[in-house]
Amino acid sequence: MPLFVRELINCLFNLLIHYIVDCFLLYMHCRNDLEVLLLKNVSLPKILRMSYIIRTSSAGLIYVLGSKVIKIGKPNSIDGCKTLGKSLLINADQIVFLGFNMEHHVTFFMTNGFEISLQIPFAEAEEAFNCAKGNIEKIIR
C-alpha cells in the first residue's frame, strides 16, 4: 500500500476518533437535560425547534440560538468557527468573564482563549451567565 494512502487512512481514522469523543462529551453534558425533558413528556422535535433565544440548564450550560452567534474564534486568528444554524452550547464553568470585544459586541471570553460574540443585549447575557453559574434552569428570552 502506498505511503500516502496509509497516511490518509490514519488521518481519517484520527478524525473519526475525535468526532466520536466530541459526540460522547456533548452527550454527557446534555444527558441530564434530555432525561429531564423526556421525563416531563416533552417531545424532542419541540426541543429542537428552539422556541427560545437563550436559556440555561441546571447542569451549568447556556444554550444560544445559532442565528444570534456573530463569531466564534481566537483573537488575532484568521479563521473563525461557524455554527451552521445549530444551537450553541456553552459550559459556564469555562467562561472567564463576560464583556465587549473590539467590535463592541457582547462576548463570552473562554478559558481556552476563544471569544464567543453574540447578538443579544448585555443584560440577557449576564443573566444567563449568572443563572448557569448557579445551576438554575431558566429561559431568558
List keywords for this structure.
4-stranded antiparallel β-sheet, 3 helices, 38% helix, alpha+beta, 141 residues
In angstroms, what is the radius of gyration? 18 Å
The proportion of residues forming helix, as a percent range, comes to 25-40%
Uncertain regions spanning at least 5 consecutive residues:
33-48
Biggest pleated-sheet summary: 4 strands, antiparallel
Mean pLDDT over all positions:
76
Shape: elongated
How many extended strands? 8
- The number of helical segments is 3
Strand order of the largest sheet: 4-2-1-8
Distance between the termini: 56 Å
Give the DSSP E fraction (strand runs of 2 or more residues): 15-25%
Task: Name the helix and strand elements from N-terminus to C-terminus, one letter apiece.
Answer: HHEEEEEEEHE
- Structural class, from helix and strand content? alpha+beta
Architecture overview:
The radius of gyration is 18 Å and the shape is elongated. The strands form two sheets. A four-stranded antiparallel sheet has the order 4-2-1-8, with helices on one face. The chain has a four-stranded antiparallel sheet with strand order 3-7-6-5, with helices on one face. The chain is of the alpha+beta class and 141 residues long. A hairpin with a 4-residue loop joins strand 6 and strand 7. 17% of the residues are buried. It is built from three helices and eight strands, in the order ααβββββββαβ. The protein starts with a helix and ends with a strand.
